Amino acid sequence: MIIIDLENAEFRISPRGPLGKALEFLRRPGLENLPDGKYGIDGERVFAMVQRYETIALPEPRFEAHRKYIDVQYVAAGAEIIGCAPLPVMAVSEVYDEEKDICFGAVPGGSWTPLLLEAGGLAVLYPEDAHAPRLAAGAPGAVIKIVVKVASRF
């Protein structure tokens, strides 16, 4: 996992290659004005999803994990907490759906790290990172987030 602001992302992420394509997309002017939906970057190998939602306060967050894609989660407006834990800590409650590239589960309290993402911040979450996005940073609030999915085997 990598946590960094978009402005300094090249310090930890190569501007070349598939993650570089994600950074290039995230630096587009007016990104936060794009309507919700899916945006192609490099076919099904790299694509973005623009999302608007209210964060939620949960005592036991629902974690997820992916196998085919790396998530680059970028907060364009607002703030949220993403819970993160090593994948082996997650007790799977919904088995992996290959078509949707996702499985869900629970992580015991105290076994996960809350990561604060504010506007301009991004998290790169690999297949070995279980994560629970959309958690309220204090009180629930509005967020505009762009998730760029990057094929883990490019």
Could you characterize the architecture of this molecule?
The strands form three sheets. The chain has a six-stranded antiparallel sheet with strand order 1-10-5-12-3-2, covered by helices on one side. The chain has a three-stranded antiparallel sheet with strand order 4-8-7, with no helix packed on it. A three-stranded antiparallel sheet has the order 9-6-11, with no helix packed on it. The longest helix has 10 residues, at 17-26. The chain has 154 residues and is mainly beta. The chain is globular and about 40 Å long. The mean pLDDT is 95. Helices cover 6% and strands 51% of the residues.
The amount of helix comes to under 10%
**Count the helices. How many?**
1
The figure for the number of domains is: 1
Structural class, judged by helices and strands? mainly beta
CATH architecture: Sandwich
Calculate the mean pLDDT score and round it: 95
Give the SSE string: EHEEEEEEEEEEE
CATH topology: Jelly Rolls
Say how many strands there are.
Answer: 12
